Fold:
Amino acid sequence: MKANTIFSAAPSIAILVLAAFLLSHNALATTAGNESSQDSVASKITKVVIQVSDNNPKRWNLALNNAENVQEDLGKGNVDISIVAYGPGLPMLEMQSVAANRISNAIARGVKLIACENTMRKDKLTKQDMLPDLNYTKSGVVYLVKKQALGYSYIKP
Structure:
């Protein structure tokens, strides 16, 4: 009778052993997956877009400070930062801007400064009226929308 009990229990034991194996294998795969996702987060580029739409030099400097602080805290090579100026904020990027030196320094550090061509057209400005080494976009607002859709963090100082 004992031999019969052992044989009838064998399938149950086999199922338990198989279940234990599968659970431990799944736990190891999950741990490995978590480690690789943590590694990818550590090596991932932080994407930031900053809006400037006020004709206020204090706001312009705050936007430039925000960009500089993000680069210092996360490392210049670990961030992709754009500052887009449009509407009343566009004078920040004009040739006579009081922030011209800071803007040149930001560009030298790898920050992209973006001018809105819609605002330029409305204000009858050309690229010759603007600071050197700028980037341009047809619409500052659409630029912000697209960057946010691509996962950029949005900042409006």
User: Anything to note?
Assistant: The first strand starts at residue 46 and ends at 52.
